[in-house]
Write a structure and sequence with these properties.
alpha+beta, Alpha-Beta Plaits, five-stranded mixed β-sheet, 5 strands, about 35% strand
């Protein structure tokens, strides 16, 4: 069974940002219920937390996906309710990497940062800052496995 389009986006995004922390410290779909072990930090965890669907502007042949991608940036700090310096640097590096390929090799129509926040007071994610990104991509209507990229290229 092929990966769904959303998973393909996560994998391509992970490959884009792997140079920041190294592939071994960039995770996909890591649970935010448990704290990340100290020996795994610093790290970045990626997840898509929501997707809204709509008919694409071309009419009825494609579905437009508007997704929220969260990048949880973990430093080794124990600060909560703040974005510490290490996480500020990580967020800046993620945005710098996005600038090198803002369409993920043609998969995305758009990607924009919508905000960032520090970890909750006494939460499991102490030392974490969350960068939220809004992304837009297209799939054929009723086929959420195939990404229709720029110029009709499929992924």
């Amino acid at each position: 069974m092929p990966d769904p389009a959303s998973r393909k986006i996560l994998l391509a995004f992970k490959a884009l940002i792997d140079p920041i922390m190294g592939a071994q410290n960039t995770y996909i779909d890591l649970s935010d219920d448990e704290p990340l072990a100290a020996n795994k930090r610093p790290a970045i965890a990626l997840r898509i937390v929501s997707i809204d669907y709509d008919v694409a502007p071309d009419g009825m042949s494609q579905t437009m996906h508007r997704a929220t991608l969260q990048c949880d940036c973990f430093s080794d700090a124990t600060v909560s309710q703040a974005i510490d310096q290490k996480n500020q640097e990580t967020i800046a590096r993620i945005m710098e990497r996005i600038g090198t390929d803002p369409v993920l090799g043609g998969r995305l129509q758009d990607i924009n940062a919508t905000g960032s926040s520090g970890s909750e007071m006494d939460g499991a994610d102490t030392g974490c800052a969350i960068l939220e990104l809004a992304i837009i991509y297209f799939t054929p209507r009723y086929n959420y496995f195939t990404i229709v990229g720029h110029g009709g290229q499929t992924f």
